[in-house]
Amino acid sequence: MTQAEPNFWVLEYVTITKDPRTGLVVAIGGTEQAADILQRTGGFLSAPGPRGDYHRLPHGLPVEQQRLKATAASHALLAAGHSVHLDAALNMLVAPDGEREAALRYLAGLAERAAAVTDSSEVAEVLTEVAAPVHGLLPLVREVVVSAWIAAGDLQEAAAAGEPDPLARLASTAASMSETAHAILHTCNHAAHPAQRPTAASPPPGRARSAESRRR
Question: What is the CB-side half-sphere exposure of residue 168 using CA atoms within 13 A?
Fold first, then answer.
């Protein structure tokens, strides 16, 4: 006897995330009960969207307030039996050093990959991770240095006469990082497409015999 599949009373999934274009924290999906919880515990507002109503936090909230309200709403939804996905960047309960530890693990893993390469294509893959123009490690670090240089421009006093300007040196460092990334990419392209070594061409048999006759 074939047993029919049971009917599960699973409530609709709710996703709470931060929209990268507008910077708003939005909640998508859920039932009317979920909407009520979002409004009461998180201060979310109902808004019409292209695919139906959704909920969002008010404009202009500080980041910490966004995280606090999103975390409170998600846990209230979970307690009521709803399935929730909360963006890790909004979760107040995530360990503060979690992202740093993940970055350190990634770098350690990349170093292990570099030490274990067996051919030029694997070398190119590792170097691409380091120097890719948009998401490479070195260009991203350069962005941090440039942002710090800009922010420090109005904070640091001018260097004393005869001393090198620390901010100017920082700008020069950022430029050097760009040059280094370019050099690494050049090496990466060379590793990905190694040049074919020319082989010494043997002379045709007729020419070889002629040369031997001349020597005689």
Answer: 6
Return the residue matching tokens 């029919």.
4
- pTM of the shown model: 0.47
- The CA distances from residue 6 to 3, 9, 146, in Å, are 9, 10, 59
**Rounded to whole angstroms, how far apart are CA atoms 146 and 134?**
15
Amino acid, res. 156: Q
CA 41 to CA 213: how far, in whole Å?
101
Contacts (Cβ under 8 Å, ≥6 apart) of 25:
16, 17, 18, 19, 56, 57, 61, 66, 69, 70, 90
Cα angle at 97 between 96 and 103, to 5 degrees?
135
192-212: per-residue pLDDT in tens? 776 554 555 555 555 555 555
